[in-house]
Design a protein that fits this description.
- The protein has no helices and 5 strands.
- Strand 4 and strand 5 form a beta hairpin.
- It is globular.
- It has a 5-stranded mixed beta barrel with strand order 1-2-3-5-4.
- The chain starts with 11 loop residues before the first strand and ends with a strand.
- It has strands at 12-20, 26-31, 34-39, 51-57, 62-67.
- The protein has a single domain, classed as OB fold (Dihydrolipoamide Acetyltransferase, E2P) (Beta Barrel), CATH 2.40.50.140.
- The protein is mostly beta strands.
- This is NfeD-like C-terminal domain-containing protein.
Length: 68
Amino acid sequence: MNSIFTTSRELTGVITSMTQARPGKKWRVHFSATDWFADAEQAFDFKPGEVVRVIGQKTATTLLIEPV
């Protein structure tokens, strides 16, 4: 796992855009000084500008997110 997840502090990011409509909705999230692709394990309706919690890394370029 990436070293960005080896901290005890809460990790948050900001939704910058939606990249794909449902099914399989995905977003772009500004996190750790760069924009990442992001996905959620449940059907959330995030909007640009919304703060989200980063809970893990799905792939090398995709984060897992949930509401704060």
